[in-house]
Design goal:
- 2 copies of one chain form a homodimer.
- Chain A is elongated, with a radius of gyration of 22 Å.
- The first copy, chain A, folds into 2 domains: 183 residues, FAD/NAD(P)-binding domain (3-Layer(bba) Sandwich), CATH 3.50.50.60; 155 residues, 3-Layer(bba) Sandwich (FAD/NAD(P)-binding domain), CATH 3.50.50.
- In chain A, helix 1 packs across helix 8.
- The N and C termini of chain A lie close together (6 Å).
- The first copy, chain A, has a 7-stranded mixed β-sheet with strand order 11-17-12-13-14-15-16. Chain A has a 5-stranded parallel β-sheet with strand order 5-2-1-9-19, with helices on both faces.
- In chain A, a hairpin with a 2-residue loop joins strand 14 and strand 15.
- The first copy, chain A, has 351 residues and is α/β, with parallel strands linked by helices.
Chain lengths: 351, 351
């Protein structure tokens, strides 16, 4: 039995799940978050609603945060950054800069839940004009508009009549080094497409895709309703470029089902950007000394049946710090990592 | 603090993960398995290797079972069936028939990890001739051949020269009532395709698919190597029927990329059958009184950020009992469910 706390780094869905699980099992927990608030990317990036059930991100994540922060065995460090690590499993000492001072947090084990960042669609691939045309936006930009209840063309404030999503921006792309699929973008784009159709019934919505990866229940929960109830138009096709034409956007590519070139005018283009390791994930991996994969995500040491161990004993990882992950992955692996962190610390019941 | 055990029902990957997690956290665990051995479907159905890392299923799962059964706080009941439940969270009494007798297992909380079964491709859809032609087999039949190191045409014992997979058999299909995607079949078929190409280099291998759902790292781990290194041929197309032609199989359908009818001869056809709730999952849901979804899987009560709660306090579910799941889902949700089962039982550390 140890009375040292468990440290969870990252206050997004995976970190909240890990911290809640550890608290519920009776551990002392220190939750370290670099931002000034808990909730992670869904809150920081103003997500409107969560895939696939379309409940308000703010409400769902807010309720999780509220429940967690009511825990008496939890200490939360906000605006805090991990700067160093010494010691070993069972007796780590973590240097944490917060509030202008550096303190040392002694802990038994560590859960890294430092998450992802959205691929920057201006990086290396300017063909879609994200930084050139105001009406070319990314998934998270549309989330923020949907959350505000105000989807308009940034260029002129008009309500769009034709809007399309381009899938796999920054994913499945050897040229930019991201060969992996980002897993959630098909579901998220389809969810947003439904929300646009609900908000603006006379706006036509198209999704240009390579494969629709609506795995599991997303197929019946999102993909079928998107087509049948909301008349979102899915086009299997590769978009090669987006150009300005008058006050519209010309989307040019190939309709691969029809086997012919495609040119179509849009009012707004939404880039379905993929997931990359957050700056925090990259930096933490170095500071903590855990192995990363070639993409910079933290490497799971023994997959597929051990999802949370890293290369370093006593340090576990969860959620999108390990790679593309949906919310269910984050919730499950967060809880799994906390359980492992506790047992690694030999905080065994009755021991 | 309670000294009542946690019960885990089902000894496959999710149940093993749950039982191990609970044992590691110091709980007493009773693991109930209807078969005469632990390991679940990967062992019962003779899987050759596990997606995506292609390590031997027997070795990987065997090591998990060995480690688990070394736990001193674990009791395993094999050939055992749950027949009744009374009591409530914190004080359940489970009737278990095992060894010709019925005993009552008192427990604090329950994890249901009773898994899935492979869709029966003879049920309602005879168009692929699974029960008619010996050379039409299913994913798990090919696994068994690969495990035995002996892939041959069942009809005549010859080595196949042309073999194809048909995806989405029993999935994404409103006609048979399974609208969901079974999530793992694209990855499993591609893994098996690679293994066939390695075992029989002059056998051409085709995969007929609607969308290749190689989410996350499967894209770079399996899909790209399958195409580039192993020359598996992916054809986007719908197969409408399989017929005998001489001693070959005539596969008839539509190549949707080429937009033309397709007829091609194969030596073997592998049906990529989807996941359905196991008989045990369906039956247990009734006995335990937990809600099921329309497909018969156990309904997660509060998704997506609580993945393991059921409609009944004190009863949690994990793995493919909840719906289509890959091995990582099973490992993570198994551990998450165990953590929740322990905290629900108020087996809190130091309490």
């Amino acid at each position: 039995m140890t009375d040292k706390p468990i440290v969870v780094i990252g206050g997004g869905p995976a970190g909240i799940s890990a911290a809640q699980t550890a608290c519920d099992l009776g551990a002392e927990v220190v939750l370290i978050e670099q931002r000034g608030f808990l909730g992670g990317t869904p809150i920081a990036e103003n997500y409107a609603s969560l895939t696939p059930h379309m409940r308000s991100a703010e409400e769902v994540v807010g309720a999780m945060v509220e429940r967690l922060t009511a825990s008496t065995s939890l200490e939360v460090l906000l605006d805090a950054e991990v700067t160093g690590l010494s010691g070993e499993a069972g007796a780590f000492a973590l240097d944490v800069a917060a509030g202008g001072a550096v303190r040392t947090v002694d802990c038994a084990s560590i859960v890294v839940a430092s998450g992802f960042r959205h691929f920057d669609p201006g990086r290396e691939t300017q063909m879609y004009g994200y930084y050139e045309y105001p009406d070319v936006i990314a998934l998270q930009d549309l989330e923020a508009m949907l959350k505000a209840g105000d989807v308009r063309r940034p260029s002129n404030g008009e309500t769009p009549k034709r809007l399309c999503f381009i899938q796999c921006v920054g994913s499945r792309d050897r040229h930019i080094g991201n060969e992996y699929c980002s897993k959630v973008c098909c579901g998220v784009a389809s969810k947003e497409a439904i929300e646009v159709r609900e908000a603006i019934p006379d706006c036509e919505v198209f999704i240009f895709y390579i494969d629709m990866r609506m795995y599991g229940y997303w197929e019946s929960q999102i993909y079928w309703p998107a087509q049948e109830r909301h008349h979102v138009q899915y086009v299997k096709g590769i978009v090669s470029e987006v150009l300005a034409k008058g006050d519209k956007l010309l989307v040019r590519g190939e309709d691969t089902t029809m086997g012919r070139p495609m040119e179509t005018l849009m009012d707004m283009v939404v880039l379905s950007v993929g997931m990359e390791p957050s700056a925090g994930t990259r930096k933490l991996a170095g500071i903590l000394g855990v192995e990363q994969n070639k993409y910079g995500f933290i490497q799971a040491a023994n997959p597929p049946l051990d999802t949370v161990s890293t290369s370093k004993p006593g340090i576990f990882a969860a959620g999108a710090a390990l790679g593309p992950a949906d919310l269910e992955d984050c919730a499950s692996s967060g809880a799994a990592a906390a359980a492992r962190a506790l047992s690694a610390a030999r905080m065994v019941i009755g021991a």
